[in-house]
Write a structure and sequence with these properties.
Low-confidence stretches: none
Structural class: alpha+beta
Distance between the termini: 23 Å
Radius of gyration: 13 Å
CATH architecture: 2-Layer Sandwich
Mean pLDDT: 89
Number of helices: 2
CATH class: Alpha Beta
Helix content: 25-40%
Largest sheet: 3 strands, antiparallel
Order of helices and strands: HEEEH
Shape: globular
CATH topology: Double Stranded RNA Binding Domain
């Protein structure tokens, strides 16, 4: 699952999702995204966040996970990222 379903960030072409990923990268937050298979064809995304270079002002004191489904891949991915960020 982890290797086969991982989403390469370079393949994401949605502008708002790219902006979100770039904002997190600027804050040294690594984002892993995986597409889960839905029997109904609905995009389901699982997200894993962690800090790349923890500093004195830790944003994430532990890895965080989130998942979401949506009518579009970009929407599901953004919602999964937001869920992980608030965890």
């Amino acid at each position: 699952f982890f290797h086969r379903q991982r989403i390469d960030p370079e393949t994401i072409d949605d502008p708002s999702l790219r902006d979100l990923l770039e904002t997190l990268a600027a804050k040294n937050v690594l984002v892993g995204l995986w597409q889960a298979l839905s029997p109904l064809g609905i995009p389901v995304v699982w997200c894993h966040l962690l800090e790349d270079e923890p500093t004195e002002t830790v944003l994430l004191d532990h890895p965080a996970d989130g998942s979401a489904a949506g009518f579009s891949f970009a929407g599901a991915a953004a919602d999964a990222i937001y869920e992980a960020a608030q965890a």
